[in-house]
Specification:
Elements lengths: L3 H17 L11 H14 L3 E2 L2 E2 H9 L4 H12 L9 H25 L12 H16 L3 H15 L9 H4 L2 H17 L9
Antiparallel strand pairs: 1-2
Helix pairs in contact: 1-2, 1-3, 1-4, 5-9, 6-7
Length: 200
């Protein structure tokens, strides 16, 4: 029988499939009921065994587990049509910038670009954990709720040993949310309207 980590990992991949339905052409013409039925069908389909394993298991085998940050963003996407749970745009943009900056600092150095490997901090370094919790508190006070929630949920999941990985970084970011964050930040920067020059 699959353990808790496997079950949640498979469910996470199925959530990705359900959330991806919102990207299909013409999906905005669907009623909320039809959208929910379609997303529910995709979720269930990805958990039905094919040749001994569910489709989600094949995907998970290639991608690994998603970070808590990715899951929070996915659930917000799924729930947005149903309730007034859209997050503040400034909070979402700040989170994406933070993810992009963290990834740009983490991945190159973890691959040997520098003498220091920040990935080692994720194995329970007290200063790193304390800095994260202080960052979550500061974000909460500045009403950047999404950052605070992602850090808090990631820290709780790490403390509970939710994933097979014992490194806190794997709960905070992953390659997929990194690619999404980098793309979103760059697109926003390109689309940002240029400010008119001030008149003296």
């Amino acid at each position: 029988m699959p353990n808790f980590t496997d079950l949640t990992g498979l469910a996470s991949v199925a959530v990705v499939g359900a959330a991806a339905v919102a990207l299909l052409p013409g999906i905005r013409r669907f009623t909320l009921y039809r959208l929910a039925m379609l997303q529910g069908a995709v979720f269930v389909l990805m958990l039905i065994p094919f040749s001994g394993m569910p489709l989600a298991a094949y995907v998970r085998g290639a991608t690994g587990d998603l970070s808590i940050t990715a899951l929070v963003l996915l659930w917000i996407t799924l729930l947005r049509p149903w309730c007034n749970c859209g997050v503040n745009d400034a909070s979402r943009h700040a989170l994406l910038i933070l993810v992009a900056l963290a990834a740009l600092a983490l991945y190159p150095m973890a691959l040997g670009a520098g003498a220091f490997d920040p990935y080692r901090l994720g194995y329970g370094d007290p200063l790193f954990v304390s800095a994260l919790l202080l960052a979550a508190l500061a974000a909460w006070l500045r009403k950047l709720t999404l950052i605070a929630l992602c850090i808090a949920f990631a820290a709780l999941a790490w403390a509970a040993g939710w994933y097979e990985s014992g490194n806190l970084w794997d709960y905070l970011i992953d390659p997929f949310v990194t690619i999404y964050a980098l793309a979103a930040v760059m697109i926003r920067a390109v689309r940002a309207p240029s400010k008119p020059a001030s008149r003296e």
